[in-house]
Amino acid sequence: MANLCKIRISTEYFRFLVKRNVRFMVLSTIAMFVLYPLLAFTEYIISGSYGSFVFTMGQIFLTILLVLSIFIVPFLLYSYMNSKRNLDVYHALPIKRKDLFVTTLLSGFVLVFIPFTLTFAAGGIYQLLVIQGIDWVLMLKQYFYSVALILAIMGPILFAMMNTGTGVDGLIYGIIIHLIPGILYGAYLVYGNTMLLGFAVNDPSLFLLYASPIWSLFELVFNTTREYPNPMLIAIYWIVIGIAICYLNLYFYQIRKSERAENPFTNIWFFPIIVTVFTLIVQIFFYSTFASMNQNYDGMLRIDYRMLIFPVFFTFVMYLILDVIAHRGFKNLIKAMGVFALITAVSLGGFTISASSNGLGYVTSIPTSSNVKEVELSMYDQYGLIFASDYRYSYPSSQSNKLIFKDDASIEAIIKTHQTILDGYKEFNYRKVWSSQNPIESKYPFTLSDEYFNTSITIKYTMNNGSSMIRSYSIPYAWTYDLLPLVASEEVFNQKYPQFGRLDMWSRYRTFEITNTLFSTFTDSNTVSNDSEVLKEVAKRYKEDYLALNYEEIIFSKEPILGFFLVEPCTTTTNCHPNIMPITAKFTRTLAYLDSINVSIPEVTLPTGPTTIVLPNSNSDRSPFFMIQNLSGIYDVYYRMEKDYVSSQFDVIDVDPEDLMPLLPYMMNGSIMSSAMGTVRIRPGNFIMESNSTYLFFTLTEGAADLLEQYKSIYPIRRVSLDSILWND
Amino acid sequence: MIQLTSVSKSFDKKLVLDHIDWTVKKGSVFGLVGPNGAGKSTLLRLISGVLQADSGTVLVDGDIVYDQPHIKRRILFLADEPFFLHQSTLKEMKEFYKIFYPAFDEAVYAKLLNNFPINENEKINTFSKGMKRQAGLILALSVSPDVLLLDEAFDGLDPVMRLTLKRFISNEILNRDMTVVISSHNLRELEDICDQIALIDHNKVVMSGDVDVIKGDFHKYQIGFNHDVENSAFDSLKPIHLERLGNVFTLVCKGNKDEVKAQIDDLQPALINELPLNLEEIFVYEMEGRGYGKSL
Questions:
Q1: Do B50 and A88 touch (CB under 8 A)?
Q2: Most A CBs within 10 Å: which of B14, B41, B47, B51, as the mutation test of the A interface?
Q3: How many Cβ pairs closer than 8 A exist between chain A and B?
Q4: Which of A176, A310, A614, B212 would you call most buried, defined as having the most Cβ atoms within 10 angstroms of its Cβ?
């Protein structure tokens, strides 16, 4: 590295090179102008207005031309290396080789930089003038990213030129080197997705962001919504990598043998290494691609070798073409065939070993809880037991569908579930395609109507040593039973009730009220307090009460609902997120505090009209609705999905308001109750539901059985459809 | 002074120069001759710093040349095919050379330009082969190097231009003590301009020295006999060339002239004529003696 400090730029030669290549700069500037600002102007002439889309398109074209010019410039300036005659002059010049290399490189950078900067500035200013609300800081960042990656993109092309002796070879291998990260990652993804059960990557483009400068350039410039990782750091990373590659190129330039110019390769190791690596990667990519086409592969062997014939032939032809180009003829053909056979043996052997050993243990490995620092869990939770229902994902972005667990009990529960999943798949020889036709033994002590259907789950372990392990599965819902203890965790509480769990999210609270079970009129709710300290205390105590319960007391609770908190916090003036939180007798700390500040649950006011109760069907003694998850509308109403229920009519009765009162002690919400006697449907009075539901639903515990029998004899039974129950009467 | 000490150079596995020891005195004009592929151009490339020796040292005035700009600034190497930047004019090439050679002499450039029918603003790629070579020589001489290395530099020049250049080089040597090394196959030309000469063969300098001394070391005689004489009669002379036509022999010998003459006299020839021998003939006979081209 000390050599770098001794480098002296020949300013005169630098100026000479730039001056000599002014024509190139003029041409590339014109091309860039035509495709960026002029394109927008053309759009204006045609349509009479400006659209940001055409500017974005222009920027894409500009970036493509930038990459193109980065490819051209090395061949423009370093082409003398490919001629012995030219080298005689250049290397006889009284300038140190490293100074010559760096001066030429610097002028190459300028040849790319000036046209791009002129066009970007012109297009950017034009855009700022004609389009409202343009983020000029973002534009400056985009400019910085583009310039930052010039050296990193130029580096691999120069590297190819340093190791080859002709322009054609330099170009071919410059392209190949740039393609390698993409094909490698493609092969990795296709192989993983095809062959490895549980295969998942944290961020699909993260590898390429760090491995492919061209990918990174487009990602940084155009994927402006990316939050992770920091684009500025990535750009700096590429500046460092660019300088490092150029330093490597400087080394190769200095040891490059002049006498080997005009030969295909000046470094005898370059072709074997690059082409072997490239062929191996392409083979793995095609093996995986073709293996994935065979959906009927046997669970034990997992590879149908007939599917690999074409990939082998394809790569054979590719290898021979590269070899013939490299050796300028067929004289090396026999040797090439031998080398290819060796490469193929290695790739096929590796592929077979990997497949037969379940990815060398990738599929079956599970970490031990003592090694795990935290686990990030995400899943499609149809019943909202752990993850709140879909509609809640409209919460601010910090409220994602991922939960991070750090406590030992939760980590154990997740690892146990992971083991359950692997045990389940083991019966199917770890085949990636799980057949819903196969019987699954459910651990749930009740019937979940969807338990045979697939749900997706992703588990990401972060180990104590900082490494991570991520697995993703499509599994029957029944296999998630061991996750239920998580329901009683703080993470789930915060996710389920962010209004109380994540006080830091909200700038203000629009509503903070308490209501009775029915809250059927405006008078049924009381404002708890406008004092934020009171709200904090209530939230704290409510959370403590919740966390004092075990998961069975939450999921299978038979405690009657005493009332609800109606809470509507906001992140901004208009962005508010209401929720209803049930209060039962188990919430002792909360109730005590409310009592201490003289806030009570208002008395129930009976509804003015009749209330509909859904009864068990004639062929059952249980309600078809087994769980009302959150009282917040139809998205949280779960009913058995058997075809008979969905398509058939339901028995309902409409009871008078005074007959609703005796049922109050048996009205439940927020828990699974497979033994529910019926379902009460109430039209709410004063609260706009976030899901815009017309009704609220409660399940009735077994205690209501006698009353229901009595009502059935008093009130006429109507037959109505499911839609009528859920949406309108 | 150019000094090569035990210099070896191989290309891949092919040995091109094998432990060369060779010295060129300052102010001399050294001719470099040898069969094709003998390593003449490689030797010039080593002296100019284009190539690095695998072993041994290449010094110019006591300094290593390779990758040393301060020495290379005083050396100019004109390859057998002169290089010009793509689509360049002679004027642009002048600017190119001026960047690297501060001693570039505009007056010399102008003077040479006047002597050659070349338009400095014309694209060089439109020039004929001879004109390109002229352009190369104009640039090389304008650089005013202390060491001028010319690889087949006069090939392709017409006789008038060759003479002009030779005169110019001779003047430069006289005025500036310039050292010139010229490799060529045209030995007649080398004979005109060079005061020293070296022969490279089989990766080594097999003969090196003053032209007159070398010429004085080779002798060509035509000898006639009245009686039959076997070829073996000349074995003691170790002729490097022997021809026979009846009883008339033509032989080329190497060594002290008086000793050779005395040995021939001992054979009692009826006729003895000493024939003139030029450098080209010496080169041909010497190479024949080394087996080069004999099979044809």
A1: yes
A2: B51
A3: 59
A4: A614
DSSP conformation class of A265: B
With CB atoms and an 8 Å threshold, state whether B100 touches A95: yes
Q: Which of B83, B94, B132, B150 best tests the A interface by mutation, with the highest count of A CBs <10 A?
A: B83
Q: Quick one: B220 and B145 in the same domain?
A: no
Distance in angstroms between the alpha carbons of the first and the last residue of chain B: 40
Considering A309-323, A548-562, A690-704, the range whose residues carry the highest mean pLDDT is A309-323
Q: Note the pLDDT of residue A694.
A: 65
Residues in chain A: 729
Same domain, B246 and B115: no
Number of domains making up chain B: 2
Contact A88 B85 (CB under 8 A): no
Cross-chain CB nearest to B49 (options A80, A83, A92): A92
Chain B residue with minimum CA distance to A11: B99
Substitution target from A254, A259, A269 for chain B, most B beta carbons within 10 A: A259
Cβ-Cβ contacts under 8 Å, A20 against chain B: 85, 92
Beta-bridge mates of residue A583: A563
Task: Tell me, yes or no, whether B118 and B223 share the same domain.
Answer: no
**For B66-115, what is each residue's pLDDT tens digit?**
989 999 999 999 988 888 888 899 999 999 999 999 999 999 999 989 88
Across B136-145, average pLDDT: 91
Question: In angstroms, how far is the first alpha carbon of chain A from the final one?
Answer: 81
Q: Is B283 on the interface with A (CB under 8 A)?
A: no
Same domain, B218 and B260: yes
Of the residues B202, B228, B256, which one is the last residue of a structural domain?
Answer: B202
Q: Which of B45, B67, B76 sits opposite A97 (nearest CB)?
A: B67
Q: What is the C-alpha separation between A256 and A250, in angstroms, rounded? A: 10
CATH number (domain holding residue B260): 3.30.70
Do the domain assignments include residue B208? Answer: no
Question: What pLDDT is stored for residue A523 in this prediction?
Answer: 59
Judged by CB atoms closer than 8 Å, whether chains meet at B51 and A16 is answered as: no
Q: Which residue has the higher pLDDT, A145 or A702?
A: A145
Q: What is the pLDDT of residues A467-510, one digit of tens each?
A: 889 999 888 877 888 888 998 999 889 888 888 988 888 888 88
- Taking contacts as CB-CB distances below 8 angstroms, the residues of chain A near B86 are 79
Residue carrying structure tokens 């004289």: A331
> Where in the sequence is the domain holding B160, given as residue range(s)?
2-202
Assigned domain for B207 exists: no
Which chain A positions have a beta carbon within 8 Å of B71's beta carbon? 94
Given A83, A92, A94, which is nearest B50 (Cβ)? A92
Residue A642's pLDDT is: 45
Which of A40-45's residues contact partners 24+ apart within 8 Å by CB, and which partners? A40/A123, A40/A126, A40/A127, A40/A130, A41/A126, A44/A130
Q: What is this model's ipTM?
A: 0.84
Answer with the one of B180, B202, B224 that is the final residue of a domain.
B202
DSSP three-state, residue A568? strand
Do B195 and B222 lie in one domain? The reply is no
- Could you tell me which chain A residue has the CA closest to the CA of B71? A94
CATH of the domain at B31: 3.40.50.300
**B219 shares a domain with B184:** no
Q: What is the mean pLDDT of chain A?
A: 83
B171 in a domain, yes or no? yes
B184 and B275 both lie in a single domain: no
Are both B181 and B35 inside the same structural domain? yes
Q: Is residue B296 part of a domain?
A: no
* Nearest CB neighbour to A92, from listed B11, B77, B86: B77
At which residue do the structure tokens 């393609």 appear?
A: A179
According to DSSP H, which parts of chain B are helical?
Answer: 40-48, 69-72, 90-100, 106-115, 129-142, 159-176, 187-193, 211-217, 257-266, 279-289
Tokens of A645: 């229920």
Q: Could you give the C-alpha distances from A618 to A666, B191, B257, in angstroms and in order?
A: 22, 126, 139
Instruction: Please say whether the beta carbons of B219 and B264 come within 8 A.
Output: no
Cβ contact, residue pair B45, A12, below 8 Å: no
Q: CA nearest B148 in A: which residue? A: A92
